[in-house]
Amino acid sequence: MSTTFKKNLILSAVLSASAFAAHAQSNVTIYGDLDQYLGYIRSSTGNSVTGINDGSILRSRLGFRGMEDLGNGYQAKFNLEQGLNANSGSSADTTRLFDRQAWVGMNTPYGEVRLGRQNTLIFYAGDAIDYTARTTFGSVINTFGVPSRYDNDISYQTPRMSGLQLSVHYALPENSTATVNNKALVQLGADYQNGPYRFGYAGLEASPNAVTATFTQKVVYHNVYADYDYGQGKIYYAFVRSNNVTGNSSGNDATAILSNISNPNNFFAGTDANVNRFYNINQISVDYRVSTKLRVGALYGVIDDTSGGNTGASGGNVGVFYDLSSRTTLYSFANYMKNQANAGFRFSGSAGPSANLSGTDINGKGLTGLQAGILFRF
Fold first, then answer.
1. Angle CA(330)–CA(333)–CA(335) in degrees, nearest 5?
2. 23-60 burial string, b = 16+ CB within 10 Å, else e?
3. Residue range(s) defining the domain that contains residue 171
4. What beta strand segments (E) does 214-365 contain?
């Protein structure tokens, strides 16, 4: 029996069981979205690529979530979520059945605890980062790379008190290849909301492999954000300081040192000298609601290589969202990015575009990109 057949058989069983549960009790939900767009990317070299890509705003997905009320303010909860490549019908990660989330937890009057594969606090803060929720080509924070989710994660979130909510995550390096000396991946977060104002911090720290590391610097990602709702829209400011970027065959800054979606152990090899290179990222954006259905916006950001290696970039976009209904949104963006001489950042969306440029077409080059697509939620 092939691995693919086994995976499809398991998924069919889960779908059948979930459908029965959803019919039997109202606290189990099947949900998801399909997000497809036509993307065009052109380099200052003159080369370009056009393709149908998945996930400009939201990665296409299928999910199951549920809650059982245990009384006295206590609820048991779970969430299972699988990413999809809707442009091809394949799984986003062929090695996992539920690559996006797989956790069980307990909500109490004193806060919520979750165990399993979970989204990071940095990922959850996306709607506070910019008017696109930090997912389009033009968002330089998204271009730099956003730590999204990790395995073996224990989290605790306080109730929101006087507008303030605190969170902590502790992801264990417990797999068979882990060594006793390796440390957990830690996240801390704080989010404050008061009327039109929102302020927050979401951060992450991971350690190098205690056995293989030749560089002892930890990977960090610190994200501070501030928003103001002026009635017809919002003004967003975000700052990131991180050393979690390095090169691969696609470009000088085209990958993360610590995996953004989890490696087997929640730590990294510690053999890449780029871990000592820190970047500051500043980004500002604003949107305006023209009507109940139409929203427009613009953003601009700068990635600054504080080591002076000339590996930064700048860019931005303008965009429009049009809600056909509460479930269906049409969108379009015009994007631009300029890499410094030694930089090689390239466009990304909620999912990395399958049709993209790389190598000499991005290293030290300027990029323009157009996106036009449709998002359907269910």
1. 165
2. eeeeebeeebbbbbbbbebbbeeeeebeeebbbbbbbb
3. 3-377
4. 219-229, 234-242, 246-248, 251-255, 279-289, 294-305, 313-323, 328-339
The C-alpha atoms of residue 260 and residue 124 are separated, in whole angstroms, by 14
User: Residue 99 CB: number of other CB atoms within 10 A?
Assistant: 21
Q: Tokens 């549960």 belong to which residue?
A: 21
Helix intervals (H) in the chain: 3-24, 121-124, 140-144
Residues in the chain where the model's pLDDT stays below 70: 1-26, 175-179, 264
Q: Which CATH number do you get for residue 204?
A: 2.40.160.10
Are the C-beta atoms of 103 and 65 separated by less than 8 Å? no
213-267, pLDDT tens digit by residue? 999 999 999 999 999 999 999 999 999 999 999 999 999 999 999 999 987 689 9
Cβ neighbours for 242, distance < 8 A, ≥ 6 positions apart: 144, 219, 220, 221, 222, 278, 279, 281
DSSP 3-state assignment of 71?
strand
Q: Structure pTM?
A: 0.92
Tell me, rounded to whole angstroms, the distance of Cα 5 from its chain centroid: 29
Amino acid at 117: R
Split into its structural domains, the chain has a count of 1
